[in-house]
Amino acid sequence: MSEENISQRNQFELAKHANAVKRFENLEKLKLIDRLETLQKIKKSNDRLEIKKFMFQLQQRMFDAPDQSKTNFREYAQRSVEKLKRDSKLSRSPDSRQTTAAEKPTEIKEIEVKPFKV
């Protein structure tokens, strides 16, 4: 009877050990997942930082440019927005698109572009 008791104890100890190993492995997996999520958050924040840097450089370049290029850029941006609005309205009715394109000659202005300073 004592032998059966010992074998049951061994099985119980073995099961406890196996459960402890599983818990440890799960904990390690959770730690790895947490590390990966942290790395992804860091990467996203770095990407956002790069975008912010790029936008800041673009703004600086626009403000540092001579007044003429600012005017050209503003006109170009305004025309682009108007064209997008017009195209979105015209896309609903294809007939009006053809008449509008024939009525208005397209005018192209040069825009001064400076290289980025990094």
UniProtKB/TrEMBL annotation:
This is Uncharacterized protein. It comes from the Eukaryota. Residues 84-95 have a biased composition (Basic and acidic residues). Residues 84-106 are annotated as: Disordered.
